């Protein structure tokens, strides 16, 4: 167990393709699988896990290169590799009738699994993400800078700007506590430990002709396979990356949905409004 405040969970590890992935696994029953984005890790869901675990199996994964998972310097941190490892992770834990909780990159990664295994998805929780190749929003300036050769290495790996800047700046609408900031910094103390964080901005597609653009397009095209699933959609309105237009597209894609829009929450709404979001999820999964 890492010496981090508010993270009193037993460590679990599974080996996938020769690398150890870390995860939290609390409670029992139908699984609720919490998927993080960048530069976060299972710590993002520390206030979700105890409440969900009262009635369900609460599982929160750290992708390769993130959190307490291995961080090989030459690791494959492409989105397709993350999706492949997620599929093997779910198989290794024999998770069935899953409720994925997806935010940021957890959306493309989680939905990529879901469209290929729709019979294993019971319901959906969607928090500030996108899987729409035709969306109109561009790449925020700070992420565009991180994509640049050399400059990205300086900003992300040397200065740790994704955590020290975006996470504690426009990414959250409420100030992060010292304990929370320390928790996010903990797994990434060195230049090389931030390699996967830098990889994510460079995986953002700018057109459907790109490799990941085609991947996102496929996810969007296959969303109808999940159309009958109940969906809980909660959105932070101050998000500089994902606008309410993305939320509206999810609402159209899932007619059987419950929607909440939070005017005082940003991209990492799990930090901004956990006291609102957690009871909504608990109520949703216990219907």
Walk me through the topology.
Elements: E1 12-16, E2 19-26, E3 31-35, H1 49-52, E4 57-61, H2 79-93, E5 99-103, H3 106-116, E6 124-127, H4 141-147, H5 151-158, H6 161-167, H7 178-185, H8 195-199, H9 211-222, E7 231-236, H10 244-253, E8 257-262, H11 269-272, H12 274-285
Parallel strand pairs: 3-4, 3-5, 5-6, 6-7, 7-8
Antiparallel strand pairs: 1-2, 2-4
Helix pairs in contact: 2-3, 3-9
Please describe what this structure looks like.
- There is one protein chain.
- An eight-stranded mixed sheet has the order 1-2-4-3-5-6-7-8, with helices on both faces.
- The chain has helices at about 50, 80-95, 105-115, 140-145, 150-160, 160-165, 180-185, 195-200, 210-220, 245-255, 270, 275-285, and strands spanning about 10-15, 20-25, 30-35, 55-60, 100-105, 125, 230-235, 255-260.
- It is about 35% helix and about 15% strand.
- The chain is α/β, with parallel strands linked by helices.
């Amino acid at each position: 167990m890492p010496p981090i405040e508010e993270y009193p969970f037993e460590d679990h590890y599974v080996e996938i393709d020769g690398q150890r992935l870390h995860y939290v696994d609390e409670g029992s029953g139908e699984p609720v699988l919490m998927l993080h984005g960048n530069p976060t890790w299972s710590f993002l869901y520390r206030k979700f896990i105890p409440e969900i675990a009262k009635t369900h199996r609460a599982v929160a994964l750290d992708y390769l290169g993130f959190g307490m998972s291995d961080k090989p310097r030459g690791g494959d941190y492409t989105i397709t590799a993350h999706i492949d490892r997620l599929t093997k992770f779910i198989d290794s834990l024999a998770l069935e009738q899953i409720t994925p909780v997806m935010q940021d990159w957890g959306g493309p990664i989680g939905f990529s699994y879901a469209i290929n295994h729709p019979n294993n998805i019971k319901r959906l929780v969607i928090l500030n993400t996108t899987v729409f190749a035709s969306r109109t929003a561009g790449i925020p300036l700070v992420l565009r800078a991180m994509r640049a050769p050399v400059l990205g290495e300086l900003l992300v790996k040397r200065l740790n700007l994704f955590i020290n800047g975006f996470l504690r700046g426009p990414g959250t609408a409420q100030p992060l506590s010292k304990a929370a900031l320390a928790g996010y910094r903990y797994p990434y103390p060195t230049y090389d430990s931030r390699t996967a964080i830098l990889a994510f901005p460079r995986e953002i597609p700018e057109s459907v002709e790109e490799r990941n653009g085609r991947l996102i397009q496929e996810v969007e095209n296959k969303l109808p396979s999940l159309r009958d699933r109940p969906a809980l959609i909660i959105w932070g309105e101050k998000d500089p990356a994902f606008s309410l237009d993305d939320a509206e597209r999810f609402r159209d894609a899932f007619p059987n949905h419950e929607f909440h829009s939070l005017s005082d929450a940003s991209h990492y709404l799990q930090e901004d409004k956990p006291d609102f979001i957690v009871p909504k999820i608990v109520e949703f999964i216990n219907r």
